User: Fold this.
Amino acid sequence: MNQEVVLGIDLGGTNTKAGLVDKNGKVLAFERFNTHAKEEFPIFLEHLSIVFNRISGPFKDQISIKGVGIGAPNVNFYTGNMERAHNFSWGEITPLAPAIHEKLNLPVVATNDANVAALGEMVFGIAREMKNFAVLTLGTGLGSGIVVDRKLLLGQDGLAGEMGHVNVRPDGRNCNCGLSGCLETYVSVTGIKRTVFKLMADRKVDSILRGYNYHELDGEMIAQAALDGDPIAKEAFTYTGNILGTKLADLVAYFNPEAVILTGGLTHARDLLLVPTQESMDARLFPAFRGKVRLLLSSVGGAHDAVLGAAALAWQHL
Amino acid sequence: MNQEVVLGIDLGGTNTKAGLVDKNGKVLAFERFNTHAKEEFPIFLEHLSIVFNRISGPFKDQISIKGVGIGAPNVNFYTGNMERAHNFSWGEITPLAPAIHEKLNLPVVATNDANVAALGEMVFGIAREMKNFAVLTLGTGLGSGIVVDRKLLLGQDGLAGEMGHVNVRPDGRNCNCGLSGCLETYVSVTGIKRTVFKLMADRKVDSILRGYNYHELDGEMIAQAALDGDPIAKEAFTYTGNILGTKLADLVAYFNPEAVILTGGLTHARDLLLVPTQESMDARLFPAFRGKVRLLLSSVGGAHDAVLGAAALAWQHL
Assistant:
């Protein structure tokens, strides 16, 4: 009998990664290609089809492809549509899963990238033995995937887990979504950059970061500066962790999870972020939850991480 | 064949209500008795046993009792224990469900009162056709019961849904739980009373409420004053609704429910609370959720409401 595999797709605003993955998380073949998010959607479909044939061709006689799992921004699990995704010129509603189903003639399931990250941890990562947990992706924005009793929390319209848009303060920072004070305007790579600029305004202390303009400064620079002892960069991580920890205490009050797992660019700073986050969370945890929730870093990681998550989605839901 | 019924018990800090309820929510017999929360736990068990025999006796030959459902403060669903409940002198951990099981020789299931309220709405109330919703009980404190895909959200330790203790502001009002700024210190009968005292400090305007001391003032007086046009009382409801609406927008971002249902003493003021809450929630709702969530008042109500919820728990879980 042929080996059963699925196609996992991580669709990002810049690049798309696709890989053939078996039930144990072994990646048989992998390719990365330009998403062409600013061209027409059919251009993407053509590229995907070519890449699919190229990576699956050599294994044609050895594998049986069960289906396709996709992680992408703003995807509705129930319809498979991508809805109002920033950074894409594919229209208000893109029939992502239906169109790929038609193109590749395989069953397709899709959800947003944070949900995919959560499934990746549950099937192949640090949450393999867990029943109730949340994964937060701290990248350009903040996404969250929440697992209840080993099932993705989807909600009535397949849109649950928008923790990036819970409110930190009513009169807070302007968000892409049109609201003010959303969590992701503070806790994300973009958020910490905004915090650095606020602190350069508030403080008198010197900082290497004062030498960069807003376009130049990125998350890596801030993390490196903090590791080098720069006072503004260090305070920015403390500020970020404080806000994150407060909101994690809320998350725990809602869900009573056994763990919260952090992943994404902001976590490259590791303890710089983890320590203030843990302190802030512990300080605000409702007594009944104290000592019952672990704060962890993702164990999936690596170039294939999101493809593994997308594959996990296919294995779980097809 | 005998008619199948369950015993529903609503255990409160002052009174306990018990009733025999059939599958359609018909209450065959009902009694209320003093909980004796400040005496030993076995005293309660004796009373319960007597009441049980008294209400079930007349039906002995016509009914078959399937089991017992209990709603009580701070109950862990998985163990049936009541854990560190304020207002009770029954010890740190009270083996509520196990002891009642032994006393009445029936299967017993127990959870906290807000979860019971949510099941009551789902089985006998306004949420009969709903799959994903939350019920908030706005009484002395604030409880929440959250239903995901027609199942109670329980969490890893059976303690999920502690929305009363999400944080409104880090330096906020002192809470019974030892934290500061918990939602229930603002949004509850006790919360609105505290708000009235804050507004009497902040404002110069006259108010009938200035004639009452802190012990005298209760929720009914504040609601009546607001209905009569009292400026402090009216502002107190607006203030309360504003905070509640902001946190409901967060709840929607986490859970993507189809409805949020409010119940408890604070909701007797109806539109005084609902209108500012709805406005505040709408203003902070993440775009994808706009128009997708309804804010409703409980439809169960009446003297038997919590007993019906406890019966629903038994029907669902035994």
Remarks:
- DSSP finds eight helices and twelve strands in chain B.
- Chain B has two domains: 3-121+303-317, 129-297.
- The domain at 3-121+303-317 of chain B is CATH 3.30.420.40 (Nucleotidyltransferase; domain 5).
- The CA atoms of residues 7 and 20 of chain B lie 5 Å apart.
